[in-house]
Amino acid sequence: MGEQARTVLVTGGNRGIGRSIAEAFIAAGDNVAITSRSGDAPDGALALAADVTDSDSIDKAFAQIEEKFGPVEVVVANAGINKDTLLMRMSEDDFTDVIDTNLTGAFRVMKRAARGMIKLKRGRVVLISSVVGLYGSPGQVNYAASKSGLIGMARSLTRELGSRGVTANVVAPGFIESDMTAELPEKQQKTYLDSIPAGRFGTPDDVAATVRWLASDDAAYISGAVIPVDGGLGMGH
Which pTM value belongs to this model? Predict the structure, then answer.
């Protein structure tokens, strides 16, 4: 990590993985802002109400961060939703809503962040994908498409801004301990665990540590990469 506090934005930083990512940057001494629709935030973070499906709200959030902390140097696009159902039952809205939040939402945030990064001649973009983006999952045609789309986005951004000191990478978590995994029937939990070579679910902190490392000086020569944090589940998918 650099000596000086950096300005970090985590979208969807109010709960789960996003919250752990925000807390990891706060612990490292960075100035952290999070956006959420609820306005809730971890201690020490600047909480901003914003919706990644609305460019104006993103613009306002960036203006507030820039006013308080200066230009955003690290952006973590984590905000996401899912509307799982089998293809034959999936409505067009089920598909487009998930794409609009998970994929177009990341585009809106990234586009606004790039302005400041180009001026600074440095920046870190980390897009939070999923093992499902490359592994696939029944009932998640919309979600998997949105999450694999982030990979093409990071790689194109790398080719556009790589010479400006900006890196763009993707982190693909596997099954992570959360409210959602806790609610799964025991039999289903066991099936999932059997498919993970590490024999355990990941923790939000496993993901946060990887994101923080990708945003650090140590990872300055890594860009356009997909880093799985899945205990071996995806195996290079």
Answer: 0.95
